[in-house]
Each structure stands twice: as C-alpha cells, then as structure tokens.
Design a protein that fits this description.
By secondary structure, the chain is mainly α. Helix content is about 80%, strand content about 0%. The protein has helices at about 5-40, 45-60, 65-75, 90-120, 125-140, 145-155, 160-175, 175-195. The longest helix has about 40 residues, at about 5-40. It starts with a helix and ends with a helix.
C-alpha cells in the first residue's frame, strides 16, 4: 500500500468513526429528551434533574431544556428540610443548600426567560415561565421581585389569575394591607371572568 492510499484509508476510518460518534450522541440526546418528557408528564421533576443535567452537557444551548431544568429545581423534593430539633449547624447547612438551589433556579429563569422573550415574544408559555420565575424569587425571599414577575406573568397570560392571589399574599406578608386588598379584589374579579368565559 503506497503512502497516498494509506492517507485515504485513515481519512475514511476517521470519517466513519466521527459519523458513528455523532449518531451515538444523537441517540443519547433523543433518549434523554424522551426520559425528561416522561418524568415531567408524571410530575416527577426532581427525578428528571440528572437527565436534564446530562442533556444540557451535551446540548448547552437548548433554551427550552434550561427552562425545564429551572422548573425541576423549583419543584425539587430531594433536599432535606431543616428541623427545629436539629443542631444549628445542621439546620444552617440544609437551609444553605435549599437557598442555593432556588438561586440556581432564579439564575436559569432570569437568563432564559428574558432570552425566550427576545427570540419568541409571542410564545404562548411565556407568562407561565414568568410565573414560575416569580415563585423562585418568592421562595428566596425576594418579595418585591416576585411581585413584579407575577404582574408580568398575568399581563402576558390573563388566565394566570393566581398571580393576583400571590401578589395579594405577598403584600399582606409585608403588612401592605391596602395593596393586598386591591389585589384580592383583582383576583376575585379575574376568577369570575374566567368562570364566565368557560
């Protein structure tokens, strides 16, 4: 075999191996996507976290899956909850882990919801993503930010009437009773309008 043929042989082998690797990666991505959708359909968001992490390692620019990951972090159930009878160090460590989880969700929502709004401003789920982002902020005790996001969510999707309820509850929790009353009334009115629409 001469040198030219040897070079062609190695090129063909390299291309073949590269094609096999690409096909394998596509198959893995497809399997991970399928598992993520199955778990989210069954409300097992926590179980989907490792699959989402692997999928995003392989496909780091997938906007929708980043949002699903943020949602899974928001609904996460596997982090231990601090208990009063525990020592202070244990409670502090557990609280820190929960706070870090919500902060990671906030970071993902902030980056990707805003990006989604830029690339798909008429996305029918945009209000829902703002709504979930608002909960992440609320759970991290960023009440003012949560209120702004709930307001945006209901502006984008009028069916998210729970946003008014949550805003009222947030205002009430900060002892802003006049504002709370305004949003309780908005919630009642919006709920009544939704019932009439159906």
């Amino acid at each position: 075999m001469n040198f030219s043929n040897l070079i062609w042989f190695f090129i063909v082998v390299f291309i073949s191996l590269n094609n096999l690797y690409s096909q394998s990666k596509r198959d893995q991505s497809r399997a991970l996507r399928k598992e993520v959708f199955r778990l989210h359909k069954e409300d097992l968001e926590t179980d989907s976290i490792p699959f989402l992490e692997r999928y995003l390692e392989m496909n780091p620019t997938e906007l929708y899956y980043k949002l699903l990951y943020a949602k899974a972090l928001l609904y996460r159930r596997d982090l231990p909850v601090p208990r009063i009878e525990e020592n202070i160090e244990s409670r502090t460590e557990k609280s820190r882990a929960i706070k870090m989880n919500y902060n990671k969700a906030i970071e993902l929502f902030a980056e990707n919801v805003i990006h989604l709004q830029k690339v798909k401003p008429r996305d029918p789920n945009l209000g829902k993503w703002y709504y979930l982002w608002a909960f992440s902020e609320w759970f991290s005790d960023n009440k003012e930010k949560a209120i702004l996001l709930f307001r945006k969510a209901v502006r984008l999707d009028y069916r998210l009437t729970e946003s008014y309820y949550n805003i009222a509850a947030l205002y009430e929790s900060t002892n802003q009773m006049r504002d709370a009353e305004i949003f309780w009334k908005k919630y009642e009115k919006a709920e009544k309008e939704l019932e009439e629409e159906e």
